[in-house]
Amino acid sequence: EMQNYVPGPMQDITSVELVSNMKIGWNLGNTLDATGGKGLSSETSWGAPVTTQEMIDEVLAQGFNVIRIPITWQGHFGEGPDYIIDEEWLNRVQEVVDYAYYRGAYVIINMHHEDWHFPSEENKEEATIILKALWTQIANRFIDYNERLIFEGLNEPRKKGTEWEWNGGDAEGQAVVNHFMKVFVETVRATGGNNELRHLMICGYAASSSETAMRAIEIPDDDKIIVSVHAYTPYDFALNITGTSEWKYTFEIEQLMTKINMIFVNKGIPVIIGEFGALNKNNEKDRANWAKIYLMQSTYNNIPCCWWD
Description:
This protein is an alpha/beta fold and 309 residues long. It contains nine helices and eight strands. It has an eight-stranded parallel β-barrel with strand order 1-2-3-4-5-6-7-8. Helix 4 (121-141) runs parallel beside helix 5 (171-190).
């Protein structure tokens, strides 16, 4: 039987210190981020079961101490200008957060499959209004939670359906994403209380691990910022369905971690790899060997990783 954690007051610690307490994370994927169904039925619309306390306990019992909860808000909020989030949705999100938070885990909540924030100059103004409205409501709902609850601004903001979607982005897309992240940080801070000390995760264009995308990130002037990068590396083994199921050690993982270290960690900016994983190609032994190398390299560079299951 897992014991409940009694949350203490908000600690005023740097994000480097916070991240150093993280071992390994797990994503509750395809669940609160699923986009089918109406209202609460969206949680199971992609075939995942309803999340329970027992499920989260089972994950934590395996040694995970970070739970990332991807959440899609689109379809669960009303019309402008107020963009009011449905009360029952916010309640369910809080219930799932509590499953992990009251077990002493670190919890990350985000905005996942949203279509309203296409990062173009043309859409920037309207998207900014929605971003502010939603994060103000979310930040106020969770204002009393301590530093173990982390807010992540956007998941993989990118120009969906364009030639720029997955290649690290164009200058316009990168600049608008930087603008969104700045607005996200200012919006959360403006709610006051514990949110003045809340650790906030920001990302670059598409949360891409490409060097151009990572170098284009403008870090807000704030000592409680963590950069989020997603890296299913090497692509052919990890994510490409028609790629390879055979793991042969390459330098790609090492290069990735060295690059993240050089651009951020070395300069005192902590990074979490918010998503990593490898498709099941009936190659469990290969995947285990790959994961071992991946996590050895990330641990060596002080970069906690969240598995996408």
